[in-house]
Amino acid sequence: MWLPERAGRWSCSCAAPGSWGGYSGAFRATARVAPTIFRLLSYIRFMELQEKITILSGAARYDASCASSGCSNDTPYRGTGNTSQGGICHSWADDGRCISLLKILLSNDCRYDCAYCVNRSSNPVPRASFTAREVVDLTMEFYRRNYIEGLFLSSAVWDSPDRTMEEMVRVAEILRNEERFGGYIHLKVIPGSSADLIRRAGLAADRISVNIELPSNESLKRLAPQKSKESILTPMKLIGAEAGFSLVERTKSRKAPRFAPAGQSTQMIIGASPETDLQILQLSQSLYRKMNLKRVYYSAFVPVNDDNRLPVLAAPPLLREHRLYQADWLLRFYGFSAEEILSDDAPNLDESFDPKTAWALRHPEFFPVEINRADYATLLRVPGIGITSAKRIIAARRFAPVTHEGMKKIGVVMKRAKYFITCSGRPFEKIDQQPARLRQRLLLGDGSEQKQPQQLVLPGLFA
């Protein structure tokens, strides 16, 4: 009986070591062929793995929730990887660095039949699944070659939520405990997973997230009837509570384990259902306040299926997605509420202006703002003044009044701000308080042709 020992060497169980057992010609021929067979099998396995990568990385491209936080974690001594180091490629950290992630699905063989999803069970698409070990090996090999700095792992639900989540958690735990990997890991939590699996995921990964999918329960029932609001919100609440508890324990002991140190995020599909921008922002505002959420990602609906429950769109609503991100920034960092940005009378964002400029045009009574006397919160309401420039204004006027020339040096976008400010009582130019005329001047800008804002997308994303 022939038994493979390792590449290029074979042994016979019925002959003594070093003996050919009386069949020297046949054995020698087999020994010469064995390395060729091994190489052929290795090539076949490589091609199968490459096909899996092609299928499962392509299936993961519609998930927008993949930005790395660039958080700092406890890299094991002599371990591999460091999530705080910057690199080249595909997603952006909160501090502006570009982070490369291996972004794949564990499987696209889904039991659910969501109307908007390319991996729905009724779609005739190629199916593939990784083993946990394959994902671990890919991550480590790609990291050692400096292709990536972390892993973004999601999956279709192929058996049950717990079975799927168990395999994803195994990937993260093997990376951390066996491979000593200290790079960034983002795991998607499968709605309906047990609390124990979610806790294990939070202890192994830097960030975990649950996709809320659609802005209302009614739309979820219509387009994804196998999912429920409770199965999505329950793990989000648990993650938020565990993260808060972890922070408290870390104040008592620095040796206490970290739970998802980069926080949790979620993703919402925009344009597949009839909700207004006001409803979407109110939901995001509620999630930020109640779920200890780090970020909401908005994903423009890409029509990939023919389904009469879905709207017919000429193109994905990318400009609407862009405006929602801008409004979301106002919610998180500028002190605005959803009800200030929009109202029942105007429930959708203006596509011609960013949300802060649109708000300023609707509230002429708030302006002009005197730059040398306004507080920080008031400065943030001025179009063209951001967080950094507002802090610089506060710091600069401690030594001398800020002038129009100084505003430009500070970094204020004067082509917008000049209509809403004064410096020591003097306007930058004559201010017209009639919103219609001011709107027209803002649209014309400096007289050059007005360009429509566009969002950059990965090539082939909507092919």
TrEMBL record:
Keyword Repeat: no
Pfam family, one: HHH_3
One Gene Ontology molecular-function label: metal ion binding
Organism name: Chlorobaculum tepidum (strain ATCC 49652 / DSM 12025 / NBRC 103806 / TLS)
Protein name according to UniProt: Elp3/MiaA/NifB-like radical SAM core domain-containing protein
Presence of the UniProt keyword Iron in the record: yes
SUPFAM superfamilies on file: Radical SAM enzymes, RuvA domain 2-like
The organism's taxonomic lineage, starting at the top: Bacteria, Pseudomonadati, Chlorobiota, Chlorobiia, Chlorobiales
Alphabetical UniProt keywords: Iron, Iron-sulfur, Metal-binding, S-adenosyl-L-methionine
Residues annotated as domain Elp3/MiaA/NifB-like radical SAM core: 100-327
Classification via NCBIfam families: rSAM_link_UDG
Top-rank lineage group of the source organism: Bacteria
Cofactor(s) listed in the protein's UniProt record: [4Fe-4S] cluster
